[in-house]
Design goal:
2 helices; alpha+beta; single chain
């Protein structure tokens, strides 16, 4: 498998050997590890993967998110620590480690 994000066949991201699903996170195409071609993904093969697993991601989303469902509430400062960490790396000066 060439993708780096572990997923199940429904494109849901899994986080451990028990295939525990990360709620609300899907991965398909070049980023997901599920493939119709196994480890042999070259050129047009990626397009087929995207069509197959892109459709599956849409089907999975339709299955999980019902019409008129309320939006997911995030914590007030969700993601700020990650952005600060990335800014620190992006704006750092000095020699490479």
């Amino acid at each position: 498998n060439m993708g780096g994000i572990p997923t199940n066949w429904k494109t849901q991201v899994v986080k451990d050997e028990k295939s525990t699903i990360v709620p609300g996170l899907l991965a398909a195409g070049e980023s997901g590890c599920a493939s119709v071609h196994g480890a042999n993904r070259l050129g047009a093969n990626s397009l087929l993967d995207l069509v197959v697993f892109g459709r599956q991601a849409a089907d999975t989303t339709a299955e999980l998110v019902k019409p008129n469902s309320p939006p997911v509430q995030l914590p007030a400062k969700a993601g700020e620590a990650t952005i600060a960490r990335m800014d620190k790396i992006r704006n750092s000066k000095g020699p490479l480690p």
